[in-house]
Amino acid sequence: MQRNDSPRKRHIVKIAALIAVTSASLALTFALPARAATGMSGMQYYVGTWSCTGGTIGKKPTQATLTYVMNGDVLQQWLRVPHSQTMKVPYVQSSSMTYDSKNDRYVDTGVANDGSWFVNYTTLSGNTETSVDHAVSSGKLGRGVTVRTSSTAFSYTGYPTTSGGKADFKATCQKS
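Above: the chain's sequence. Below: its structure in token form.
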């Protein structure tokens, strides 16, 4: 039995098939919704130094500096609030965050120079992070919502309870 298709014709058919497969995969790529970054790549956004302004709602805002460093799969953070008329000693907090792939969340633990400490769980969805306290030295569990407003700015709102309630803390931060 003799084949009627020449090597050139087979080559054209293969190219046409390759183009069809590539087009279909590109169409699927652009049609599927974007997924949030998972693992510690989702927290790479923070690496660097940030200048922040904020505090308890209804009181004069305070200036603070946040510094983030990625050390392997751990995001380390240092918060420094200088002393002021309302704060006689500087406040310093150190925390570390890592990704818990089994439960699809971040685990953040921290301690401060006033003896306070916390453990919270954070979820990331799009440009919004929600942190819920799991254990805190004060015994009063709360939550926080961070919104990444641009590649160089974010806002944070703190709540005194894990669900519902009125915000009691607000801050905005700009990458230095």
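Strands lie at 48-56, 62-71, 74-81, 91-100, 105-112, 117-125, 128-136, 143-150, 153-159, 169-175.
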